[in-house]
Amino acid sequence: MFKQKAAKINFGNLRQVEHFMQEHVGVGVSFDVGFREIILLKQRVHIYYLNGLCDSAIIVELLKVLIAINDHEPEAVALPIIVKNRLVHQQFEETKDMESAVTQLLSGLIVIFIEDYNQAMVVDVRTYPGRSPEEPDTERVVRGSRDGYTENIIENTALTRRRVRDPRLRNEILQIGDRSKTDVCISYIKDIADEQLIKVIRRELETIKTDGLSMADKTIEEYIVHQGFNPFPLVRYTERPDVASNHLFEGHVLIMVDTSPSMIITPTTFFHHLQHAEEYRQSPAVGTFIRWIRFLGILISIFLLPLWYLLSLESQLLPEALSFIGPSEEGTIPLFLQIVFADIGIEFLRMAAIHTPTPLSTAMGLIAAILIGDIAIEVGLFSSEVILYVALSAIGSYVTPSYELSIANKLVRVAIVILTAAFGLSGFVISSTGYILMLAKTKSLNTPYMWPFIPFNLKAFQQVFVRYSVPSSESRPSIIHPKRNLK
Amino acid sequence: MIKQEKKKESIQSLRWRVAEAGFFGGLLWSSVGVFASYFNFTKVSPSSLTLQLFFRANWIMHWQGELLAILILSIISIVLAYLYYFFLKNLTGMMPGLLYGIGIWLAIFLGLSNWFESVPSLVTLSKDTIVTTICIFILYGVFIGYTISYDFMDYNSEQQ
């Protein structure tokens, strides 16, 4: 309907254009879209703008130059040519398509219609409200660059470009969402990245049919990886330009979505979620150490609590050396319920911490630690061992660099505990096996999720297990199918 | 000529990778087996599948024996990986590997147990032991099978 109407508009007929703008774009109703009429060489010129997203200073400059046409130019035949010449701005284009002109207008560009001229002139004068680059909260490092992506896609491509001056870096932009028209950008280095993958991503993005992407990157992710009810994060996010550019060099494809500071890195495996920029800021030995400790923490966050629960359920399993494990006295509440309650309690805390204002968070911490933790043991609600193991696995999940993965692992842990409660040892063993098999079966954009573990690839697995120094790791990971293997 | 040489080279590296998968698969999953038998999940440990078949020394029952058993199993596992490579590499997905694991498990507890005292036969196994060992063998089978079929697929698509 909008499209059909837009196609019929004669750009040279300003009355018709104005009517269209009033009817379909809400000029005169919405207070943020407006237009200004000026007379140049006795011809009418309309300038449409969106007041919130454009830079008035630049517009005023442009207007000054335009008005000066009346003083300097003789009565001339070709006003459009003069105007085009006088619009002193490098980002200028002409369009015959009303629909795209309106989209441009609503993105903050100004659109200029000249009487009896069949094209519209579009000048990019937008400035978006936004913050300046800050260190991302979720990916802090002790040393190293402190800049992070922002909500502005133009700034984000600029931050990447600062690190990748390669002329072969490509930033393809497309708009997604029938109503939101959100800018989405696919970035890759042309002679490294796998063409097949780029094709798949482009196709997936182009087939998205939705009104808007209000959750930006997350919505895009759900469309391209077909997540379903799989709790595991199938793409990696980063807010750090250095991490993003490193992945570009390896041959990954990035997807950026306007209004989100998180870049989507594809393809991703499970082990990408276990890496952190901090490892690469330390010497290789220290980085490796950090990594091992982190792996240990993640293993603990999944398996320790169910294992302990199993051992205290069936104490005949305990080897002699470890016979001290297990609660010495049965509490009034069954162990299973204690674990579930304590785990839910920690989940309460986590959720509360996200939206508690900072001044109140100290109070919240105190209440949680002393009132709930301590008193619950004294009253006899929880045995202290339960608190210990639940806390250990909670800390273990905070060690996981990827927030999404830590929550998914938490779900798995709860599932293993429940199955252990129901079926004892078989429940524990079968659910753990199922966990690994499920991960191995998962694929993200045709990439096996557990690579390089299952399917096994020794060289890549060493890279996961040991943080090698940068000069000694000269080949790109084979899973990405880079066009050039050596760096 | 060069192309042929390259082809030869990559089939060699493919075979080498089969050996790698076999060795590390054996290493990893028999270590898991030792862990499981330490916690008494299973009465059958790596050492009872290897060393105890022939020897009856005291140290074999302890961790030294298990360590040696892990090493032996890793080497046997290379052979198992090649068996998979020669007969089943064309199959895709995880299912063949899973069944391969169950097949090895059956071969051990139905076949091997007839001849060797240290391997209990299927009927005498406790439920815990059955579940634990079968899970470990399934994981082992998937590890070997999926790796080999994935590498082979990769190799094929490279050749084209």
Describe this structure in words.
The complex is a heterodimer of chains A (487) and B (160). Chain A has 487 residues and is an alpha+beta fold. Chain A folds into three domains: 2-123, no CATH class; 137-268, no CATH class; 280-448, no CATH class. Helix content of chain A is 49%, strand content 13%. Chain A has helices spanning 2-8, 14-25, 56-72, 79-86, 98-106, 153-163, 195-206, 216-225, 241-250, 277-281, 284-313, 335-355, 358-379, 384-399, 403-441, 458-465; strands at 33-40, 43-50, 92-95, 110-114, 120-123, 169-176, 182-189, 236-238, 253-257, 263-266, 443-444, 447-448. In chain A, strand 1 and strand 2 (43-50) form a beta hairpin. Chain B has 160 residues and is an all-alpha fold. Chain B is 78% helix and 0% strand. Chain B has six helices and no strands. Chain B has helices spanning 2-38, 46-49, 51-54, 63-88, 95-115, 127-159. The longest helix of chain B has 37 residues, at 2-38. The model of chain B has no long low-confidence stretch (mean pLDDT 88).
Keywords:
heterodimer; A: 487 residues; alpha+beta; 3 domains; five-stranded antiparallel β-sheet; 49% helix; B: 160 residues; mainly alpha; 78% helix; 0% strand; elongated; UPF0353/GerABKA_families (chain A); membrane (chain A); transmembrane (chain A); transmembrane helix (chain A)
Strand content of chain A: 5-15%
Per DSSP E runs of 2 or more residues, the count of β-strands of chain B stands at: 0
Based on the structure, what is the oligomeric state of the protein chains?
Answer: heterodimer
Number of domain modules of chain A:
3
Distance between the ends of chain B: 16 Å
- Total helix count of chain B? 6
Give a summary of the structure in a few sentences.
The complex is a heterodimer of chains A (487) and B (160). Chain A has 487 residues and is α+β, with helices and mostly antiparallel strands.
